[in-house]
Every structure is written in structure tokens, then in C-alpha cells.
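Section 5: illustrative case.
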């Protein structure tokens, strides 16, 4: 759980830096594209985006360690708490001020994570079927297609769809990590490996486009839902994730409370230049 929270700190801080870089790299003539690879290439030239990528890399390693020891639902809720980190980091970096209600939402996230930490058992021992692994690969491909089509949507719904698709891609990464035993030549035939690579790449592209324009509040809310709800269900139904004996109610409550608090803080995914 400590590793999962460390990953949330890395991802939450990175999102502020990357959103600032994405906005600075935006070009009006590129508006209307769901997946903008040129935007990524422009943004990656900025030190803030590179620093964000470095934090993402550290966070990903911590996320892998966490996924190897605790259930997916606990890791997902902890990662959703990255929005609380974003809210707090926005104060010194962007001069943002949190109201009492917003500080209350931060406290709600922390309370939910505390409940999850108390209730979470060890990761399940399910290995996942071939159908599940192929399904993850199909979902990863669908994420990329949805992102490409999102550019034709009205501006109001475009950011939500991009955020939800990006969250789904990150969710593919979470589940795929559990379905890959070791980094070896034997895993080259594992569809989960390619689902991880495709889902992660698609999620990064879509999140960069979502942060560049439209309502980032909607984008980050979609991101939280996409990377928490369905991966948690997969972990419970197919991979055997379970809470501690007699504490299922506390795990469910903690998950719901943490995600609800994160959604309340979703507007802090939209940093502005100081």
C-alpha cells in the first residue's frame, strides 16, 4: 500500500507538470483531433513534460510492486488519490487555493484509503485465462480507436470520452501487470504483454490530448472512473482478489469513499499558468 500511495504522489505531481506543458504546446489548428501525436512530440521537448515522464516512470515501478502484493481494487483507489495529490501540489506550483470543502474532499480520500488499507488482503492467486488476455488486447486496441474518433465529438463531451478512454487504457495496464509472470522470452507469446504496451501508449496519447483542450475536469473524472471501477471488478471476478475475512463491507466502503473524494477533486486536473 505504501508503494501504491507513492505511485499516486508521482502521478499526481506529474499531471500538473504535463498539463502545463500540453497547454503550452497546443496549436489552434490542431483542434478537433482525438489522438494528436504531434502534440505529444511538441510537449515532450519541454522540461516540465520530461520531468512529468520521469515521475510517471518511478510511479509505474511502484505501481507494479503494489500490484504484485495487494488487490487491484486497492491499487486503483490509491491511484485515484493522485487527484488529491494534484490538488495539494497545485497550491505551491500554480498558486491555487483550496476551499474548506476541497480540503474536506482530500480528507475523504485519505479516509477511504485508510479503510482500504485496513480491509485489503493479499492479491488473488488467479492466473487469468487466454480469453481474458486476448480481451485485454482487444480493449487496448479499442481505446486507440475511440480516441481517434473522439475528435469528431462536441467539445463538451470530447474531454470526458478522451479521459474515460485514457483511464481504460491505464486500467488495461493494471490488469496486464498481474497476468505477466516475469520479464522473459517466454512472455513474448503472452497477449497481456502487448495489451500492456498498447494500452499504456494509447492512454498517454489520449491523456495528453485531453489535458490540452476541453474540460480537464471532465477528462480527469473520466480518467478516475476508467482506471478504477472495471479493473477492480476484473480482479475480484477473474483473479481472486479478496478483502480480509469479515471486512468486505469495509473494503467496498473504502473504495467508494476514495473514488468519490477523487471525483470531487477532479477539477484540479486543470492547472493554469501562474
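Designed sequence:
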Amino acid at each position: 500500500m505504501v508503494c501504491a500511495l507513492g505511485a499516486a504522489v508521482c502521478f499526481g505531481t506529474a499531471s500538473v507538470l504535463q498539463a502545463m506543458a500540453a497547454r503550452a504546446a497546443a496549436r489552434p489548428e490542431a483542434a478537433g483531433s482525438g489522438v494528436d501525436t504531434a502534440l505529444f512530440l511538441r510537449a515532450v521537448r519541454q522540461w516540465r513534460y520530461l520531468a512529468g515522464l520521469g515521475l510517471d516512470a518511478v510511479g509505474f515501478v511502484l505501481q507494479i510492486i503494489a500490484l504484485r502484493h495487494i488487490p487491484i481494487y486497492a491499487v486503483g483507489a490509491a491511484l485515484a488519490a493522485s487527484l488529491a495529490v494534484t490538488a495539494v501540489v497545485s497550491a505551491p506550483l500554480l498558486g491555487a487555493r483550496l476551499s474548506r470543502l476541497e480540503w474536506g474532499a482530500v480528507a475523504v480520500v485519505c479516509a477511504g484509503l485508510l479503510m482500504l488499507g485496513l480491509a485489503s488482503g493479499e492479491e488473488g492467486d488467479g492466473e487469468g485465462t487466454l480469453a481474458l488476455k486476448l480481451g485485454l488486447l482487444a480493449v487496448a486496441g479499442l481505446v486507440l480507436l475511440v480516441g481517434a474518433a473522439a475528435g469528431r465529438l462536441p467539445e463538451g463531451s470530447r474531454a470526458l470520452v478522451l479521459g474515460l478512454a485514457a483511464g481504460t487504457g491505464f486500467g488495461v495496464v493494471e490488469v496486464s501487470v498481474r497476468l505477466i509472470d516475469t520479464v522473459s522470452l517466454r512472455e513474448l507469446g503472452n497477449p497481456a504483454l502487448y495489451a500492456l504496451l498498447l494500452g499504456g501508449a494509447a492512454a498517454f496519447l489520449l491523456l495528453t490530448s485531453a489535458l490540452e483542450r476541453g474540460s480537464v475536469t471532465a477528462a480527469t473524472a473520466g480518467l478516475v472512473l476508467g482506471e478504477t471501477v472495471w479493473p477492480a471488478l476484473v480482479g475480484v471476478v477473474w483473479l481472486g482478489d479478496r478483502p480480509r475475512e469479515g471486512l468486505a463491507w469495509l473494503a467496498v466502503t473504502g473504495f467508494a469513499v476514495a473514488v468519490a473524494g477523487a471525483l470531487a477533486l477532479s477539477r484540479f486536473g486543470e492547472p493554469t499558468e501562474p
